[in-house]
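Give me the fold.
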Amino acid sequence: MDRRVSAEAAARLSALAFCLAACLFAVAPAAAQAPALSCSRLVERFNAAIDAGREFDAHKAAEESLASPECSAFRMPMLRRLSAYRLNEAQTLMARGRPVEEYENSLASAESAQVLWQASATLAEVRFGARRFAEAAQAYDRAIEIVKSETLTPNSPSPGEIQSLMDRAAQARLLAANEAPDKGKQQFVQTAANTAGGLGGVYSPLVRGIVPRAVPTSITFEYRSADLTPVGEQAARELLRAIMEQRPPKVRVVGHTDPRGGVEYNLKLSKARAETVAQFLRANGVTTPIETEGVGSAEPMKINGSAGLSQDDLNALNRRVEWRRE
């Protein structure tokens, strides 16, 4: 099968505003006070390797910085420049419409250091396009956590870019939970932890000043029922954990359905599903007031980039329970 990133996905990737130029600048020895001569030479060797396209040599120099405590100040700039170099190589092939196999390793290497949110987001988008939704969700979560770090990401992405990461992370998680049995295993994707050990990623209460107001969960139900699936129960427990950690003054749970079925039936089913989640939360220790609402199919999920998604996928994204932060 000829696996290439679709034109729509390529446009989405371009719209991520990668801004890699700063990361591609040479690492400056002046970044630290009075670096040892050996560190200056190490930095020079690293920069020369990057400039000459000798990725392995650059990687080796970056690793040597870890082994030399006096050179530790240069490790992060080295990793960022090396990751940016690898990402740039992958993007060049992507822009030429080359098959994924030709740049997947470079992209994975760029993301492995987890120092550039753009690398994690690009890998996530490629995984999403390949219908590897669980892996995509995890990579989007990593991108969100990198964005939250002012050390790793001194210049915050725009609010729109942050919201896009949050939305796509939730969509990938939902699709993993709803994967058709004949196409793949239904999976619960555990949300990434933050630096304090609590839930981060798509459940982050704050991302660079932005409060995600609607958090689509991957809580799923049996067909035409308000009974939780096994995956749905795992997702409900994760929502429980998020609420117990964040202690909001109140909780609002909103149920949604896909367009199939009558209006009244869908309203009733979406309300029943929201009530199931509320009952689960109360039964497991949530004493915060919980409001529930069912909106049926009246509020379909806004999807920025549906290339490669089937109607079943779109229906799965519309069948959801959201935690609304007020």
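The radius of gyration is 22 Å.
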